[in-house]
Request: fold
Amino acid sequence: MSNLTRDHVGLSDTFASRRYFKKFEGIMQHMLHVAGVQRAEGALDDAETEILTRYAAKLTHTFKALGMKYLLAGRETGRFFGSLTMDARDSGFPVAEEIMTMANDAQQARGHLDAMASVDTLKDQMVQTMLGERRVPTKLQFALSQRLYYEELAKGDLFWVQNDVQSQWMGNLDVGRRQFRLHWATYDSQVNLPVIYMMELEDSGDVGLPKDQRRWPEVQAHLSAQALGGLKLLTIAKGFDEDFDDLHPKRLRRFHLGPMYSNAYTRQAGPLREVLAEARAPDGQDWALVWTEEELVSDRVIEQKSGWFSTVEREVFALDPFAAQGPDLGATRQERSIILPTSVFQVLDEKQPAGFGSVRKFVVSSSGRVLQY
Reply:
């Protein structure tokens, strides 16, 4: 059995750690622009764009908090504090344990803040140390970074390992037939990547799903338990369809955010690694982010016998037999996209590596504008 932690790397250099968080802060902003491009072309509607934007904002807040936590990584702070651990091979993102630890810290954030000196007090002490003792106040800088870390946690709105299922009412189709969009997200611990799910369903129950005190907790628990990157969308949708006779999943989508490739930080193999090495992009532009969307849609409905005298609706899902992986893909379609700066795209376009012809390219200009190729 392989050791999954052998490709986990600690960012123990202060400036490397800060550049890493700065890089992700920019990438998350570019993701928002990409969502805007897809909205303009009709690939996403307003509600779907808002959902993706919300999760991108949560990821931004999470990286900001981690950036504060490890602001003094590699510096002598008077205590051993460690450094951010990232997955250098599979994802380029922080490992899931970092998010788990942050969740535990968030539960105790208020207590830590009550016991800490205020930001203004710490800044005053830093000035006095620099002017009076003529030395760098590293320990006070560390104390301030931790204060700011817990303040970010106390604000909330962060991306956790498990982000609970939320619902949106989409309208009534008929008397006793409602339509909802559910969305939830996870930080997949197997590959250390954030994954976002959306499901559109029809509800034929007596009470609207979010107000049903019996079904709603069961649905949330069921979907959270099935939010595993290794499960095919077909498996998730069929299991849901069979477990809830009055809920009818019509469309299920999954967005994998990542991997993130960077010549300075990651060791992934393949064409992108070679492209980044040849591009020799300046600091802040040495990256590429892969974004994969899977979609499963219902093709038709059949009636199945349930008990002696009743029947239930069951969905028959459409699979694409001509997809690269054939029916084994477990989805109606799969689309890969890549977001990358102009300098990296130019090398990619020149090399034309195999397998990238069908990949959508979103290119970020130096001004931050996103263009699609």
